[in-house]
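Lecture 7 notes. Example A: sequence first, then its structure tokens.
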Amino acid sequence: MTRIYKILPRTAWTQAQAAGVFEGSPVDLTDGYIHFSTAAQAQETARRHFAGQSDLVVLELDVAELGEAIVWEPSRGGDLFPHLYGALDTARVKAVREAPLGPDGIPRLEGLT
């Protein structure tokens, strides 16, 4: 099973849970898809885009359950990143992890596989 991850503020996740769907963060809405990362990509995503932001969570999903809505597209350095075209049904989220800030101000993402 291949896992993918979405880092977002806890408040955004709370709102998504109440609605039953996550439409995307502001950057997702601008780009037209929801950005995800693999376990190998997630820490660099946290460093680049979430430094200094506290009260974050990391959503864990099984990419196979999302089917053809996931498209792997090149991004920084040519790495392929998973992008979800469409809204995310919150019932698809397998786990929600904490992402506490480390001493360097970067969210720590531990135990991602």
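Example B, a different protein, same format:
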Amino acid sequence: MSPPGGARIVMKLESANPTGSMKDRMARAMIEGAEASGKLRPGREIVEFTGGSTGTSLAFVAAAKGYPISIVTSDAFSLEKRNHMKAFGAKMTIEPCVNGMVTPDLFVRMRAATERIVAERNAFWTQQFENHDQTTGYYALADEAWAQSGQRIDAFVHAVGTCGSLRGTSTRLRQLQPDVKVYAVEPSTSAVMSGGAPGAHRMEGMGTGRLVPMWDPSLADGIETVSTEDAEAMARRLAKEEAIFAGTSTGANLVAALRIASRMRPDSTVLIIAVDHGLKYVTTELYR
């Protein structure tokens, strides 16, 4: 699917992680960081609000390490993710959505529910939007991509949720190749990094409708906006043409990467990430 005459596109298949998501890396890094600092001790409950993949990864790590965990999420996110979290033993709090859409107020309500759990039960809140421990979890991803691409990455194109994966991966890539270009991806209907107004979309795991704490304009050389419809169509095309089964944010990454690659030399390499596995979305609008 790389554009004729444009750059080579390589995709890191993070769907190969244990829960089928790159978020396994950050969940482990946040929990082990809290253990090392003494904030998290055996038996203390963990809590987080999440669109699903972070929650699944946290529940996975918590189950492996023996911690109780509560997850605040919403029916805006896939049933597969919610069932996956439950399978690992997570207690669930579900905030209702409107018409299946991810809206800015949804994250406000989920955060408030998380704060109540912290106040009532003294749970340890991983605070994924502010927790810089997670960025180090992505250094290994960058090292792997660097080695597997033949030590040539000229551009990195990636969707922004908490901004932890973009910050962590790009920081390490710039240590390996200082002139690498980084492009952030956000929903066209909620393009707040581009200076637009917050709005609704169906791209899980990205586009919270606000400038997240870990975002810094200096992290990116450019910002690409992608519509829900284009991202979904690209994810379906990716499955049919490349036999790579992934979610909507991966489709958004590829839409943006094709634009970038078409403007670059043929001897250049663009890196994108298959953020998670398509099995997380088989009952959603993406694949239903």
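Note on Example B: The chain has two domains: 8-20+138-281, 23-125. Residues 104-121 form the longest helix (18 residues).
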